[in-house]
Amino acid sequence: MPDFPNEIDLLSLFQCEPTLLEEAKDYPFYYNEATYRFSNGEEDFIVHLSPSYGEVKIQVMKRDSNRLVSLLDLKRVEKMEITADKKDHSSILLTVINEDTQQMIEMDFKPYFKQLFNEHLTR
């Protein structure tokens, strides 16, 4: 079962209300799909989460040019951790475990977007 932050922690991190799947409005947050849209002033973010499926999609656009900076579309996230949630700094750590590898994706949202991808052999 994927391990994701709860709804309140995500509200604090992204500082916005999510759009939930219309036909699943009455479902518990973990079994719903949530889309967060927010900005850090330099980049605009769209974060789509389906916690029960372990799906995370994060799109980052340059605010002034609307140019795509990054698109991360993961289907088997084992764990999503909030590593920083402050007014001037926010970040997460995503963990994907495969047969022979463990992938760690660190992502900063504030003050600027940064993404680090590390893969480790597990065998």
Protein architecture, described:
- This protein has 123 residues and is mostly beta strands.
- It has one domain (7-121).
- Helix content is 7%, strand content 54%.
- It has 1 helix and 9 strands.
- It has one helix at 7-14, and strands at 19-20, 34-39, 43-50, 55-62, 68-74, 77-85, 90-97, 101-110, 114-121.
- The strands form 2 sheets. It has a 5-stranded antiparallel sheet with strand order 1-2-3-4-5, with no helix packed on it. A 4-stranded antiparallel sheet has the order 6-7-8-9, with helices on one face.
- The longest helix is centred in the N-terminal third of the chain and has 8 residues, at 7-14.
- The radius of gyration is 14 Å and the shape is globular.
Describe the secondary structure blueprint for this structure:
Blueprint: H1 7-14, E1 19-20, E2 34-39, E3 43-50, E4 55-62, E5 68-74, E6 77-85, E7 90-97, E8 101-110, E9 114-121
Antiparallel strand pairs: 1-2, 2-3, 3-4, 4-5, 6-7, 7-8, 8-9
Strand order of the largest sheet: 1-2-3-4-5
Alpha-carbon distance between the termini?
A: 22 Å
Along the chain, the helix and strand elements come as HEEEEEEEEE
Number of strands: 9
Strand content: over 45%
The main pleated sheet reads as:
5 strands, antiparallel
Query: Are there runs of 5+ residues with pLDDT below 50, and where?
Result: none
Mean pLDDT over all positions: 95
Helix content class: under 10%
Helical/strand content category: mainly beta
> Oligomeric form of this entry?
single chain
| Number of helical regions | 1
Radius of gyration: 14 Å
Note the overall shape: globular
Total number of distinct structural domains: 1
